[in-house]
């Protein structure tokens, strides 16, 4: 229980109103207050007059100079004078507001509304004669704030030891969280009270290809719920992470408080700053309904508009891939049986083939044929290039060259064959974490793509980052991702990154970075498994800042189909797999299963063929994190709607109200639902399909099986 002494309460009240600035949201429901208490900056947040965030400290700790030594993260008392978290006086304040509508290049809606009131407070630290600006933007759905560092005599270059932005909640809310890690977000979500996080933490993770855990800390976006008669949903995240490390949240479980923890490099430094500069925005989205949190676009609004002069090449893409058969172990990325290869030296044509290489001419043509017959636009091929024999686990810098195909992959012939069928091949650039090597080869790799008509690339960062000592979310690597995005834009190429940092709304600024993985995706169903509630939590966490390449569409969920006795399975019904195409926003949209599995269920596969990948409108019909999500979306440039509903491990009834449709119009609805006997364990492929004429007055009840769902295609008659 949170402890507040009477003395402390009275002392805090003495400071209320002294050096305090107040800011209200455009609709007046939110109020943010900023104040200095004995030179220390604090803020709080109220919603409808009720405290959502109690007085919470702001500030940063700095190293004394830019000559960082190993283990220098250990602070000494004499270092305190270098910090930017105390001794301030307010010297200026500016106010602003904006109400604009902007159009994302790709998005869940045609128009995003960016409406906020702003307060920028300039603080001067008298002892050092340094000034910083704390900027707040208050929207109708929550608060964003950041630090700004003007160029000045005594603050030109500095190194961040830690950012100490706090978010102090008054109550012990329910939380949906994953463990904090400098290198991965690929963990199962936990559902506990804030106070229970430390007790669960040690049991909340499994091994990963690259891992640096932060004890008793969690990752953002973090979803919270105040339960009771008047529930309140809170989402804590960040926006516009540029030239700065990604952050995590240290947990003070007793006081229901979170504090920013930045990703470090091997020296313990968190950020190398040259003024003028700004930090990412810390975001707090608040709403009385879970659906309103999912619908928020505040994180995107806190990013800058793109400076790209041409975005015409950035388009939604539906694709298939030579991928799942390698994930489940049926095929391999590597071509040969060798265990040690040297690029530019090894003659791969003289190596012994392993007989399981999936990216071969014959198999790829089979995928091309099926994708073309069913109206897909792209085909991803992994394992096409030399180097996979010893690609992982050796901290090998020169691991791929991104231009040399294996002997059984005829890149010219396959591209011509694909183009003759209306298919564009999608490039795969796995870096094995060697970001330095990728930057050296990026121009040649993208030139090869241009030569053969590849329009998009899936990048990968499996393993520890090179330069050694950096992490997937440290400042250097964050900057690497954007260097690659900018380089790809020079060649008119779209990026789909895997094992990268999670998006924080930057698709507004870098729209060619159209999707990312950065969470525990479908491949984990073939590894450690995903819980049935996993897909009902992701829209409230990972998806808040941008699209995810989740790779759904698995129809053959039991892996003993391939390997008798294998106990692995995808914890979902087939109908739920269809629904994911609507509940999850994916402008780069994959049908991930093998063609032979789709051929057995072409009636259900029709939904994947029909569903859109980009949207003019989105309506969250019903949602509760960890339980269920029901979403309706209107396809870009059409009058067609699609609806998807999913549930967790519990059976669930839900009635769709079609009042979002145009009044006075008739529509033909094609309905894909769990069959009467469907069950994700015992009968996952049991489904029912039927058509029905509906109007805006129609209602249809669905009975979702355990880890089941439903999907609807709606076309105006």
Automatic annotation (TrEMBL):
Its cofactor is Ca(2+). It comes from the Bacteria. Residues 614-715 form the Glycosyl-hydrolase 97 C-terminal oligomerisation domain. It holds the Pfam family Glyco_hydro_97. Residues 23-305 form the Glycosyl-hydrolase 97 N-terminal domain. Residues 1-20 form the signal peptide. Keywords: Calcium, Hydrolase, Signal. Residues 323-519 form the Glycosyl-hydrolase 97 catalytic domain. InterPro entries: Aldolase_TIM (IPR013785), GH (IPR017853), GH-type_carb-bd (IPR014718), GH97_C (IPR029483), GH97_catalytic (IPR019563), GH97_N (IPR029486), Glycosyl_hydrolase_97 (IPR052720). GO terms for molecular function: hydrolase activity. Monomer. This is Glycoside hydrolase family 97 protein. It comes from Chryseobacterium oryctis.
